[in-house]
Specification:
The chain is globular. With 173 residues, it is α/β, with parallel strands linked by helices. It has six helices and six strands.
């Protein structure tokens, strides 16, 4: 694993209604999940309200845990233009929260994340959650969206060629 001795990553699996997040810290080769969870937005909440909630809750996590970088799942291919726009909006809210705090942002493809967690790029969500529990020595299996965020963090620590998007570049988008 290639990382700085005490790197702390904010990892995000973005979605409008259920955004997974995690803070994972590395100390050499050891990884430790400091916190993880899901930002759940009520189905009756307008999309604009969901975006604000994602940004605000991630801002709270960032202030509390002081991550040094952010890792996020990259945009995936979707067959519906509407789904792509909604997912892109949720990613945007998450990216703004990270960029406002000056965090360097790394993006990872969904297949790359599953490969890092399970060993194959077409793994089911349940397999990812089970492996994440084992890899991070968690007492219980995390909810699917939080497990996906934890897998993003693991991918970041395992990656030798991160795709860097600086805070300045994120603000230009």
């Amino acid at each position: 694993m290639q990382s700085t001795p005490t790197e702390r990553v904010l990892a995000i699996d973005p979605a409008l209604r259920k955004t997974g997040f995690a803070i994972v810290e590395s100390a050499g080769k050891d990884l430790r999940a400091l916190t993880y969870g899901t930002i759940v937005n009520n189905p009756k909440l307008l999309p604009s309200g969901c975006l604000v909630a994602i940004r605000e809750q991630l801002n709270d996590v960032i202030r509390q845990y002081q991550p040094t970088v952010c890792a996020i799942e990259a945009t995936i291919f979707v067959q519906s233009l509407k789904t792509a726009i909604v997912l892109g909006s949720a990613r945007g809210a998450a990216l703004i929260a990270a960029a406002e705090h000056g965090l360097a942002i790394y993006e990872y493809a969904p297949r790359e994340i599953k490969q890092a967690a399970v060993g194959r790029g077409a793994a089911a969500k349940e397999q990812v959650a089970f492996m994440i529990r084992s890899m991070l020595r968690l007492r219980e299996t995390p909810p699917a969206d939080a497990a996906d965020a934890l897998a993003v963090a693991i991918t970041h620590f395992q990656s030798s060629e991160a795709h860097r998007l600086t805070a300045r570049e994120a603000r230009r988008c």
